[in-house]
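#structure-requests
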Amino acid sequence: MRFADAHSDFGILRSMVQEGTVSKQIENDFVRDLEIAEVGMSVVQVGGDFNHDTYDFRERDIVLQTMNLFQPENIKQHPYLEVAVSKKDIDDITNRGKSAVILSIEGSTVIDTKFETLDFLYEQGLRNLAITHDYQNQYGCGCRVEVDTGLTPDGERLVEYTAKKGMILDLVHVGEKTFWGAIEYASQPVFVSHSNSKRVFDEVRNITDQQIQAIGERKGVVAVNFISEFLDPQKGVAPLDRLVDHIDYIVELTSIENVALGPDFFQYLMPELDYVGDVIGPADLVRVPPALETRGYSEREVSKICYENLVKFISTSLR
């Protein structure tokens, strides 16, 4: 069984290792676990509208520094990982048993409204973009703002511009009004990389039935987040059954083709986080298939949820 991860903070981890604030061993162990678990694709963040410790990943210099860590001469220290920018790349990398890395930013504050920074990042390999991360920027509003004023005129231009470049749009973290504005203007493939069902658990980071259905209608995927506080109202480690509850509901609203995994592993930098079923890193992903099979999913359906759906979506979305 192979796996695909719709939202990985491995880029943030590498950046902090580079700065000397995190042990290189943590990075090496993470990559070792990716290979052990046969994670064949990861959508990796190299920046976003957030900070960690003293590092602000909205700053252009930090994003460019992190992007540089994934250039061929710098990523070769991890032979299992290779950056992909096209369907051809993905097919080649995965057919050789390696792991395709799709570079992404989780929020677009770093992008100037002339899109010069975006053009440069695209040339360096960026292929996926989220509008914002929880709060407001020059392009739209996140899910934690008091009043979501929607996609801005510059946000409309951003969505259209990324479509022309053949980039994927991630509608995670945005407020509902901003979400629907993006849906209106997006001609490119859209997905949600690490959120769950608001009907199953009413939490601000989760998305509504209508949002889930809109993603399904556009042949996108909703990738479920493994952090317990987004799955279940009870504090502490949620049982794996709760993850499957969210998957069941998304399948019910869309189809077996429209759900994937977006674990959001970050315990190596935030040890206080609880993850469903104590699935705290890539090596623990092997616990997910049995939980799905117990609920009645076939081996083929489990493979679609854990790997095939995300790889197909990303592959067909890229030029």
